[in-house]
Amino acid sequence: MASGYGLSGGPSRCFPFWQELLACYVVNTNADDVNGAKICVPALEDYYECLHHRKEKARAIELQRAYRRAEAAHPRENAPRPGAIRNLGLLNKEEDTKDVLGTDRSINAGNGK
User: Fold this and answer.
1) How many CA atoms lie within 13 A of 56 on its CB side?
2) How many CA atoms lie within 13 A of 49 on its CB side?
3) Fewer C-beta neighbours within 10 Å, C or N terminus of the chain?
4) How far apart are CA 91 and CA 108, in angstroms?
5) What one-character DSSP code corresponds to residue 12?
6) Which residues does the chain have with pLDDT short of 70?
7) Taking CA 10 as the corner, what is the angle to CA 4 and CA 12, rounded to the nearest 5 degrees?
8) Quick check: 21 and 44 in contact, CB under 8 A?
9) What is the pLDDT of residues 37-51, one digit of tens each?
10) pTM check: above 0.70
């Protein structure tokens, strides 16, 4: 944020938030009274969030935690085995592919079907 320029030469991603914060400070503070800066706390929080993404990271972690709790509470009945996922008919594993897909189709590269 030292120069206000981003990696591609244009304004940085947080520069509009910085301008908003600076404008708030200019309007609400003066040399005699610096208590007007308290009004600018929401703009300051927005600027810090743009820089560090702390709230966004915390929300993503909480969503992942909730997803894992829900997944652990209700496990899948027919979840594929890790070996079945890895094979999927790539290395002469047609039987595993049939198990995963639940069909009787055989994968045969030689006939083009």
Assistant:
1) 8
2) 13
3) C
4) 11
5) -
6) 1-4, 80-97, 99-100, 103-113
7) 40
8) yes
9) 889 999 999 999 999
10) no
